[in-house]
Amino acid sequence: MKILESFGRILYERHVIAEKWKAQHRPVIGWNSTYTPEEIILAADALPIRILGSLRPTTLADACLPRNACSFVRSTLDMALRGDYAYLDGLVTSNSCDNFNKTYDLWKSYAKIPYFHFINTPHTNTSVAHSFFCREIRRLKESLEDAFRTTIPSKAINRAIQRCNENRVLLKKVYDLRRKSTPAINGVEALEIVLSSMLTSKEQHSTLLRQLLKEIENRPNPPKPGIRLLITGSVMDATDLISITEAVGGIVVADDLCTGTRYFWNLVSASKDPIDAISKRYLDKIPSPSRYHHRNGRFAHIENMIRRYDVEAVINFLLKFCDTHMFDAPLLTEELRSQGIPVLNLEWEHTRSGIAPLKTRIEAFIETIKGVP
User: Fold this and answer.
1) pLDDT by residue, tens only, the chain of 373 residues
2) Which domain holds residue 49?
3) Within-domain flag for 37
């Protein structure tokens, strides 16, 4: 379907899209944590885009980082050092993990980007943390106003909230297409749809989502059925892993990824103070393992997704040296296996050479669930 191809095209042409936006004399601001309040960037009439990596060797970043640094963070830094993100007018980052914290200074020193801003995001969602985060969001707003010589009124923030919420609602409707016994879209297509929502204007993406929802019921070539899988992990910015999984008898019907449901599942509630509402949304959203107690947050979300999407098994794709997810994996595995859910934990490097060897293990896992001797 041509409409499905549109999302993949946004993903693979993301730098061209950003440069076209910049050519209209509108700022392009990169971000690399799902705790970054995109609404404030949008309200400044800027395009917020997620910093993604590539699966190429990271020869330039290797000179700056030790071997036990996260390979995804290494990849994004390598792209910055190569000038792939030279078009950015700014970068907003957060203390989402130690690796991003440490590489912030490297980006600031070596990437030729004029504006940088660091958001100190609390690791809990208490009332004290919420008050603190409200101040951090206001500090971001004032920083953007000063750097780009603009004013961000409450009306603009409210409009940005509406655009983001609309996109989130549509993404959830698209995900509901995967609840069917024969999902209307496969895991590769779903990942491209979510990733593309982070790389273009919300209006354009929402228009494409509405068109997809209108046309998908008459899809002439639905995905092949398979073992219904939920995938979890930190970041997945390329479709290779899902493609391998679906080529050996699985079909990914749900996820818990920061490039998946953690990004769009929660909405910003209506409030007289839009910054207060934004703060609550981001601190109360599906948490990453680096945040507050996961059992009543992320684990509950995963268990709900398993029931909602009729999931048969879970694959946990663990980026090597991602400490927060590594510490979290045994707890999640124990929780799910106690409920009779098979779990496969796979450690992988964010390179093509790190992905290829996983195929045999994924295939064996799926055959075990099928009962193939």
Assistant:
1) 899 999 999 999 999 999 999 999 999 999 999 999 999 999 999 999 999 999 999 999 999 998 889 999 999 999 999 999 999 999 999 887 778 888 889 999 999 899 999 999 998 889 999 999 999 999 999 999 999 999 999 999 999 999 999 999 999 999 999 999 999 999 999 999 999 999 999 999 999 999 999 999 889 889 999 999 999 998 999 999 999 999 999 999 999 999 999 999 999 998 889 999 999 999 999 988 877 666 668 899 999 999 999 999 999 999 988 888 888 899 999 999 999 999 999 999 888 887 878 999 999 999 999 885 5
2) 24-155
3) yes
d(C-alpha 128, C-alpha 150), whole Å: 30
Q: Is residue 140 included in any domain, yes or no? A: yes
Whether the CB-CB separation of 171 and 236 falls below 8 Å is answered with: no
Say if CB 91 and CB 31 are below 8 A apart: yes
- CATH code where residue 126 lies: 3.40.50.11890
Cα distance between residue 214 and residue 319, in whole Å = 36
Contacts of 6 (CB under 8 A, 6+ apart): 208
Per DSSP, the residues of 294-345 read STTTHHHHHHHHHHHTT--EEEEEEETT-HHHHHHHHHHHHHHHTTT--EEE
Determine contact, residues 175/262, Cβ cutoff 8 Å: no
Q: Is residue 94 part of a domain?
A: yes
For residue 24, what are the contacts with CB-CB under 8 A and spacing of at least 6?
none
